[in-house]
Amino acid sequence: MSDPLKDYLPSDEEIEKALQEAMRQDAASGGMPSAGPTFQALRENAAAHGKVLLVDHDTVVVDLSYKSEGVIALSEFGAKPPAIGDEVEAWVMALENVDGQVQLSIKEAQRHKVWESMADGAQEGTVLSGKVTEAVKGGCVVDIGMRAFMPARECDIRYVEDLSVLVGKDVSVQVIEADRDNRKVVVSRRSVLRNEREKKKGSLFETLATGQTHHGTVTNITDFGAFVDIGGADGLVHKGDLAWGRVEKVSDILEVDQAVEVVVLKFDRGAEKISLGLKQAGPSPWDHAPLSYAEGNRVTGRVVGLLDFGAVVEFEPGIQGLVHVSEMKWGKRISKPGDVVALGDEVEVEVLQLDMERNKLSLSMKRVEENPWTTLDKKYPFATIVRGTVTRLEEFGAFVKIDEDEVEGLVHISELVWNERVSHPKEKLSVGEAVTAIVIGNDAERQRLSLSIKQTEPDPWWDVGERYAAGKTCGATVVRLESFGAFAELEKGLEGLIHVSNMGDFRVSHPRDVVKVGDRVSVEVMEASEEARRIGLKLLDAEDS
């Protein structure tokens, strides 16, 4: 009966081949037998190096090149377990545990590294791994294989208001103070982050340029904008570059630690200042403006701002335009936009100009209405009597709003009264006063309507040559005296001059020697001219006043 084990044993030929191969290896090594694998010399309470062989649900098995493998509790690695093949440094707690394996500890190795780093000088910058276990007064407790204190100012590059957000977080720290006798250790995460940030900033600045798009994180929010970390350096997103629409508060758009995509608008390498744009990273509403807001288009929007010189109208987020006060009403001078519109009003406007380079719209409210000036010459032809209200007084005249229209006309100062010098219209009129005037000019192209108040009454100089022919005697009243003579009123609005040479048979030095203001006198007309608007008189007799 054949032996079934023979099926699993090597054949004679295979054995012979293996012996010959072994002899060749001995010959190559000088006839000396192989020394076998090299083993690591281990001892308790010392460091050991190894390679991860297996990661179990609660244990990490490490190849130590020793007669037995090492084991480490998985919990000692924190939130990031090792991968097979990773090199690890651990502390030998026992050369043989109950299972015959070497008992290792990562935390204990790190604890010893702390003291070693202090022995070599903490300023050398040894970086240790740890986990924040609790937030305490003035800082945090960090487990680095031993209990260490991290002051609040050393927790981050920036101020952390609520330190509890760091609890449970794996951190990299540097030892900044150690007292072995009292087992007191102070660590800093800030120094590690700062060093990492400086390295990132150096790399960032080598390639940073205007127009680039970067992913970043909001680090701080202010009234004027937000600071965003784009990988080693902070840039400022100004409030005006947050969104295409109107932004009341920065916090309405962004919050701290929010991930954003931004565009580099300006970069000053010397000053290390970066200006960023959030709205520029997305499509602009102005891209479709040439179609929606072409010149001549009529669109409806909402009043969102009132300025001294006009009103801002918004049509969609990011698309706004200005209605200048001169484009609000036909024929009416607007002193302030609030007299016509209020915030929130919905208005229809016509696009006057679209400036794509500066993203600006010029608008008109009055042009969506009929222009009254186009028919004004027919409605108010020359010599039409109109009634209106004085709206304002200027040195050169008074503006009068015609009651039937939103049109204003100008009464020049010379058209206020007949034969009377007026230095300012306020001497004869007041704002709000109702007046009657006559149209004496109508320029539709220049939108000017000229009015006269005095011409609603007859000109006292009309036909004066016939009414006061030379040689006629009549009575008059002295109204004012000048050095060369006295002015006497013949009728309302009609004055004549009695020259000193015509005041008597004797030479008169000054008119006051003969007459005084208010005297009733008898005079003879020497000449009267309607064209020159002048009457020369001769004193016949001075009556008792």
Q: How would you describe this structure to a colleague?
A:
The protein is mainly beta and 545 residues long. The chain folds into 6 domains: 47-108, Beta Barrel (OB fold (Dihydrolipoamide Acetyltransferase, E2P)); 121-193, Nucleic acid-binding proteins (OB fold (Dihydrolipoamide Acetyltransferase, E2P)); 208-281, OB fold (Dihydrolipoamide Acetyltransferase, E2P) (Beta Barrel); 285-368, OB fold (Dihydrolipoamide Acetyltransferase, E2P), CATH 2.40.50.140; 372-456, Beta Barrel (OB fold (Dihydrolipoamide Acetyltransferase, E2P)); 464-542, Nucleic acid-binding proteins (OB fold (Dihydrolipoamide Acetyltransferase, E2P), Beta Barrel), CATH 2.40.50. 11% of the residues lie in helices and 39% in strands. It has a 5-stranded mixed β-barrel. Strands 8-7-6-9-10 form a 5-stranded antiparallel beta sheet. A 5-stranded mixed beta barrel has the order 11-12-13-15-14. A hairpin with a 3-residue loop joins β16 and β17 (310-316). It starts with 11 loop residues before the first helix and ends with a strand.
Give the key terms.
single chain, 545 residues, mainly beta, OB fold (Dihydrolipoamide Acetyltransferase, E2P), 6 domains, five-stranded mixed β-barrel, five-stranded antiparallel β-sheet, 30 strands, 39% strand, disordered N terminus
